[in-house]
Amino acid sequence: MTNRERVFQAYLVSAARLGDRKAMERLAEMCGPRLLAHAGRLLDDRQSAEDVVQSAWIDILHGLPRLADDRAFMPWALRIVSRRVVHVIRRRQRQRRLASQLRPEAPESATSQGPPAADAATIRALIDRLDAPHRATLALFYLEDLSVAEVAVALDIPAGTVKSRLTTARHKLRAFLKGETDEQDR
Questions:
Q1: 56-76 burial by CB neighbour count: b if 16+ within 10 A, else e?
Q2: What is the pLDDT of residues 110-148, one digit of tens each?
Q3: SUPFAM superfamilies, from UniProt (predicted)?
Q4: If both were cysteines, with which of 14, 16, 51, 97 could 24 make a disulfide (CB 3.0 to 4.6 Å apart)?
């Protein structure tokens, strides 16, 4: 995001806070795709991601009067989306536990995919192998181009945890790549 876009976004936030409906709509148009991409990366389900972002916008618009810094809007909004995602994931986990208690030995479906054709697809597949916290941290830092401090705000974790997750994720990706290379060389 360019500095000009950040300034315009801060203006929209300020106008939306004052009740300007057009500013709210423009803010949703401007930031909605990034929020949806973030939720989609965490949930791997477009429909659930859309639902999460839609409900998050209600919290975002109601919370605007309490936002102290208009320039911090995006990390703040990402944190709201992240919290909504956590609720969805927890609900899914409860449902899975309940389902597994009802049918304790349900076989897991095993689907195997061949090696990805492009390097980008390979990296994406390796990132998908990471757990959700590491995936989210990588995505916000590299794909959303947020700073460590902004990622910390978005995920509601300390900056040191962001750095630790980035380091761990990089090491895991290197190990995955080395493992992929070793397997292909055999």
A1: bbeebeeebeebeebebbbbb
A2: 444 444 445 667 777 888 888 988 988 888 888 777 888
A3: Sigma2 domain of RNA polymerase sigma factors (SSF88946), Sigma3 and sigma4 domains of RNA polymerase sigma factors (SSF88659)
A4: 16
Domain ranges in the chain? 1-105, 115-186
- The fold of 1-105 is Rna Polymerase Sigma Factor; Chain: A (1.10.1740)
pTM for this entry: 0.63
d(CA 49, CA 36): 6
Q: Which residues contact 177 (CB under 8 A, 6 or more apart)?
A: 126
Mean pLDDT of 55-76: 93
* Domain 115-186 of CATH type 1.10.10.10: yes
